Amino acid sequence: MSSVVSPRAIHASPRLALCLLAGALSACNTSAPSGGTVEAPQAKVEQLAEKSIEARATLPEPVAASANEVAHEAVAVKPAARRGREDARAAGKMATSPLQTFVAAAPAVDALSQPLESRERYQGVKDNGIVLAAEQPFSTFSIDVDTGSYANVRRFLNGGRLPPQDAVRVEELINYFPYRYAEPPRSAQGPRAPFGVTTELAVTPWNADSLLLRVGVKAFEQARTSLPPANLVFLVDVSGSMNAPDKLPLLKNALRLAVDKLPPTDSVSLVTYADGTQVVLPPTPAREKARILAAIGQLRAGGSTAGEAGIQLAYQMAQQGYRPGGINRILLATDGDFNVGISDFGQLKSMVEEKRRSGVSLSTLGFGTGNYREDLMEQLADAGDGNYSYIDTLNEARKVLVDEAASTYSIVARDVKIQMEFNPGVVAEYRLIGYENRTLAREDFRNDKVDAGEIGAGHSVTALYEVSLKGHKGLLGESRYARTEITTDGRFADELGTLRLRYKAPTGGASLEQAFAVGAKNPARIEAASEDLRFAAAVAAFGQQLRGGKHLGDFDWTRIEALARGARGEDAFGYRGEFLRLLRLAQSLTTPAPQAALRVTE
Length: 602
What we know:
Elements lengths: L6 H6 L1 H9 L22 H12 L4 H14 L4 H12 L7 H6 L27 E2 L5 E5 L5 H11 L11 H5 L20 E10 L2 E13 L10 E8 L10 H13 L6 E7 L3 E9 L3 H9 L9 H14 L6 E8 L10 H11 L5 E6 L7 H10 L4 E3 L3 H10 L1 H5 L3 E10 L4 E7 L5 E2 L12 E3 L4 E10 L25 E11 L2 E12 L11 H16 L10 H10 L8 H15 L4 H8 L1
Parallel strand pairs: 5-6, 5-8, 8-9, 9-10
Antiparallel strand pairs: 1-12, 2-11, 2-13, 3-4, 4-15, 6-7, 11-14, 11-16, 12-15, 16-17
């Protein structure tokens, strides 16, 4: 099929893109010579849509990327037409599948000649540097359970583009995947600790002279039905900027999935904002599913974006339905494009920080492309003691709001901080991979006034350190002038360092602290390390490569894929298999180095 179709032909005809995505080129009227156009009869559109998901994977990646890009842009330039389709669908005249809405949206060909202006915004991130353990043995950071960066990176790659470097937060890529970490042991002497800790040491796959230390933190599992009753407020952006198939229609389907699985003891409120704000649904028992789903179904997009007023009203609804001792959480679903009321980022963040004192958490669900404000979404969730997710597909919505609902809604520990004290008698240098916007000063670790991240039931968090031991080749070298003599206690010669965790109970109060010695003996060869360490290392290398790969040496895409493929292991949800596909996409979109290009031409 694709052998007769060129990317040029795809960009000339949105209908051809739809035919390709549907795997049904034969349904088009012509055979698409290079540079030509193909038109499919309108009656075939819904049939093409139904076939698209399965057949898309069979296209060569450059063709699939071009088809995805054209079809996606095709639906983004006709808001009036989209609004009409939404109204028709509400009247039962059109199928409710987001993909069918997407397929039916192809505009005239000349609309594609107008490129979309990207107004997406990301917080700047500067990679952590290499640190001398003799000068700075303490590494301190806040825990991070967000995974939004991974889904956002996936969206870029599936669209045929590499993500901006600042969109890649390596720790969120690593933490997207479940790992087999030990849960905290039960104690007969007192309350159970909220999480267990796992450490592992192996040779770094991209640097034979250094070691990779994996630190895993796992909160105890809790079934969704065993959690206390939840008071949930869905705060939905229905402004004009949400009028696209990957925004409000996807958002509505995501909320339907969430509501369908809520236990009857929960309650739901629905607040919207556009030019103004509206309480679409006051606190309503989750057992009244028909009423809640009807309220979600009537949502329509249009107008400007009064986000600040919407947040204020959502907190009022949360207080109206407040559950003492229960879960009280706002889920803000938006593209983050606030333009009415408080639009200054600092003011918005301060407002949410002040509101969290009421006992209500705020999480964010990001949607859409083009004007997406990820910088706002991530930090609002941090300020609101919540978590940030990006929803690019209905499968991702199910992962966040159904499969991992206990983690998304609940909190088992607040203000969780990690501090690794490296033994300078053993360790020469170290580097924390990721967590650049979570780092804390050493003195912040025991300062309970300093905010940190929350962890929910079943959440796992992974941190990776690249460590160079004394006597091994490092990257910093020795100073000609400065000499630091290290005197260490011989009793600790077998310790790489000490890992400390500090946290508060879900209800707050005084912080508790745990400490664990990390051994330095017998690091494993990377081939003999656990599947989880090897896979996490591959994801870390993937993220670093997307950010320029300055610490990876000659550890290229091919070697990253080999490491990930060999560590795929049990993959119940298919996440690791999908990662391998994204890895290949990233490789195909990366411009090869001159030496590599020369070898290919030879």
